[in-house]
Amino acid sequence: MSGQNEHKTMTLKLIVWRQNGKNGPGRFETYTAREITEHHSFLEMLDVVNEDLIKEGKEPIIFDHDCREGICGVCSQVINGVPHGGQERTTVCQLHMRKFKDGDTIYIEPWRARAFPILKDLMVDRSALDTIIQAGGYTSAHTGGAPDANAIPIPKPDAEYSMDAAECIGCGACVAACPNGAAMLFTGAKVAQLAVLPQGKVEAKERARAMIKAMQECGFGNCTNHYECQAACPKGIHVKFIARLNREYIRALIG
Amino acid sequence: MEILTNTVGRKVLMAVTGLFMLFFVIVHLLGNSTIFVGPSALNTYAEKLHSLGPLVWAFRAFMLAMLGVHVLFGVLLTLENWAANPGKYAVNRKLKANFSSETMIWTGALLFAFLVYHLLQFTLRVTPDIIPEAVAKRPGDVYAMVVGSFRHTAISLIYVGAMVVLFLHLKHGIQSFFQSLGWSNDRTLPRFETIGNVLSALFLLGYSAIPILILVGFLTR
Fold first, then answer.
1. Which end of chain B is more exposed for a tag (fewer CB within 10 A), N or C?
2. Does some domain include residue B148?
3. Closest residue, chain B, to A245 (C-alpha)
4. How many angstroms separate the CA atoms of A168 and A152, rounded?
5. Tens digit of each residue's pLDDT (9 = 90 or more) over B134-143
6. pLDDT value of position A54
């Protein structure tokens, strides 16, 4: 790497959704991101833009973020039409500016779904996902003190299956990507991770029913098997967990 | 009835009613294919069917019920989904959804319209291409009626167009059946998608072959 290359920067045109509050009308505003290097993460690029806005006495762009290492599920932006920007298994915070070219125009929008009302700019209220968890995304077995790690033997494939479902970080990209605003991938993963384990099997039937009911009451749409959710998921959660949710529900229905 | 209001329950209803209509599409194609054996084969087949009397009517009532449930919940689900996703993105890039999966309600509506037209044409025999005198003279000559109608380019084109729509609907619908009933997993889903593509392509080819072969003069009166 020559010294020259390290200082090479990009200038980008950002078209960002701005909205004052829950009911405020939203609009797109255009900004210029200057002095961006390929090493900036997408959120760091927005930090740079916000610094400039603050210096100009303007209100910075509000966006959700927390761990910035791709595990917390808080960052949530639709970049050029794809939640998290379309790099496979990558959250917005782990998307880097080397994926963009100098002079690019980037559209940045919030998650859009009836169940996720916009709070401000790019920040949406995702508490509907918590409501689904509260409806049954737990086990209520009394375990007493901490049990021995291997007191209940669990076959390796079951453990793997459960862990694959548990990879879900609850960011809501599946809802944002879904043409129907459905939360089936999220709910499917949360039902499946418990349904396959002995501790979770006890309440499997009530859980599937209750979580689906909560999902509907929160205003999420119906799944029509587009599989857009899986494609957008930063953790690669498979739609087999939606099939599992369907199976669990049918099982609950026929007794 | 919980199944009528539950989002997964409704998926199950869509899948099961769809399956029965898929069976009908298969059986209907097999029946139609007797035209390749010859005029008497098709006419004998039609006569046999009609001789079943009450059984035919029971079958028709059953298919009508399947269609009714499929249409009702298809429309309901679509309206709910439009309401659940009110804000469209300024930029919309799809990664997996495709034309076939995104147009189910429209291909469904077109198929419904075609079904009405198709029944008026070959079952009730009231469309302009059907010559009433010929039908009155020989009501059992289904072969002559079919060949007579498909000789009109426009009628054959409508038919083939409807089969393209059926192809699009089933390309998404067949694999969707397995997913909705919870029978698919990461290993089988791609196979179900292939089965859906192959079957819907076979239907397109099989059904379209009849009007096309009549148009090019391969099947004649």
1. N
2. yes
3. B182
4. 24
5. 888 888 899 9
6. 98
